[in-house]
Amino acid sequence: MKTSSIDLYAVLGLSKDANLAAIRKAFRARMRQTHPDGRPPEDAEAAHKEMVLLNLAYETLRDPGKRAAYDLDRRAARNAKQEQHHEPTPPPTPQPRVILLDPQVVDFGSLFTGETRDQIVTVRLSDNSTIRYAWALTDCGDFWQVVDPQPYCDVSAVRLRLRVGPLSEHDALGLRSDRLRIMVNDLVVVVPVRINVVAAPPPPPPASPPKPRAIVLNPRRINFGSLWPGMKSQEQVVVEARFDDGSPIRAARVLNPAGSFWHVVSGSVARDTARFVIRIQRGPVAPDQPRRQLTEQVQICLDGVIETVWVTAFITTPLAPRLTLANWRDFRLTLLGWFMLLSLLLLVGSVVFSGVYALLND
User: Fold this and answer.
1) What are the CA-CA distances from residue 353 to residues 296, 348, 361 (Å)?
2) Do residues 287 and 200 make contact, with C-beta atoms less than 8 angstroms apart?
3) Where is the composition biased (Basic and acidic residues) (predicted)?
């Protein structure tokens, strides 16, 4: 067959400056469209001739030597024809319309059981002409289905959404292949569909339970020392309570604000604070309180979490008063009073004794 009389570039739908990668891509696309499996039986002979022509074009253009010789023969034949007939250069042969697919292979990648995924297939003509009619010949396959299948009429492009799954546990693992058939005008386009079914990943380990919040007390133990009934003292101890993680306190209170030898004087209830501060004052001690060491609990509740402050005191006998200037003045006044009272009694006794003695001697 004399190749100089055939425009092999037009056969593949390429320009004359196309590189090897473009030639291979165009050849594969045209072969898929021209294959007899996708055409009616009466077109088998025409399809065979088109495939022979496609193979000739591919074998000639992919070899740099053959391609250069072909281009040279084409130019020489064209020049000779122009010189012989002196006819104007004929217009370039219009490129045949080709059905373009994007993507050419629908690959859903790797999916595990229970997972689903969508892919969109776009079909259009190479010259951007209008597609008279198109539809999917089958709206579902072995592992996929067309979302909202419908016929298309007089559109510039057809967009089909394919969806996988969800896959069940009984689906076989590994690579699986199928084909989507689309009727475009008078041609059937076959689109390969692939998927790789993999085993589902193991479930994540259960999350560890949150660490419970703990109350930090400062101080945790209080020692009031020696106390006795009637003791007058205003000594106070400040106790601070907070959470160890620094979280805010919504509600705080003292569950038992008083004991047998202590009581809370301020801050027994608080809300919406970062720390809870109370003041514990010692005393008073009941008169019938036994003389011994006592340890009692002050229970503090922060947002339902309870912690204890331990309060200790030694209940003893009252101490003898110390001698002071005021005590000495009182002592002197008391001694003087007793002396005057005794003197008065002696005086009265002397008068009475004298009277009795006088009566007896008369």
Assistant:
1) 66, 9, 12
2) no
3) 76-88
- pLDDT of 137 reads 82
Residue 298 CB burial class (10 angstroms; 0-12, 13-18, ≥19): buried
**What per-residue confidence (pLDDT) applies to 328?**
65
Is 80 exceeded by the pLDDT of residue 156? yes
Half-sphere exposure of 138 (CA within 13 A, CB side): 14
The rounded distance, in Å, linking the Cα atoms of 257 and 88 is: 115
pTM of the model: 0.37
Q: Where are the domains of the chain?
A: 3-85, 99-198, 215-315
Neighbouring C-beta atoms of residue 111, cutoff 10 Å: 20
Give backbone dihedrals phi and psi of 269, rounded to 5 degrees, phi first.
Answer: -140, 140
Whether pLDDT at 92 is above 70:
no
Place of tokens 């084409």: 74
Number of helices followed by number of strands (H, E) in the chain: 5, 18
Structure tokens at 162: 């394919």
In angstroms, rounded to a whole number, what is the distance separating the alpha carbons of residues 70 and 2? 10
**What CATH number does the domain located at 215-315 have?**
2.60.40.10
Beta-strand ranges (E) seen in 213-303 are 215-218, 221-227, 236-243, 249-254, 262-266, 269-273, 276-282, 293-302
The answer to whether domain 99-198 and domain 215-315 are alike in fold is yes
What radius of gyration, in Å, describes the C-alpha atoms of the chain? 56
Secondary structure class of 46 (helix, strand, coil): helix
Query: Given phi > 0 = left and psi -120 to 50 = alpha, else beta, which region is 179?
Result: beta
Q: In the β-sheet with 269-273, what is the strand arrangement from edge to edge?
A: 221-227, 305-315, 293-302, 249-254, 269-273
Could you tell me which CATH number the domain at 99-198 has? 2.60.40.10
Please identify which residue in the block is written with the tokens 């990943």: 201
Query: Taking each helix axis from N to C terminus, what angle separates 20-34 and 44-62, rounded to the nearest 10 degrees?
Result: 170
- Are 240 and 247 in contact by the 8 Å Cβ rule? The answer is no
Domain 3-85, CATH class in plain words: mainly alpha
pLDDT at 152: 85
Residues 210-230: tens digit of each pLDDT: 788 888 988 889 888 887 777
What is the number of alpha carbons within 13 Å of residue 119 lying toward its C-beta? 21
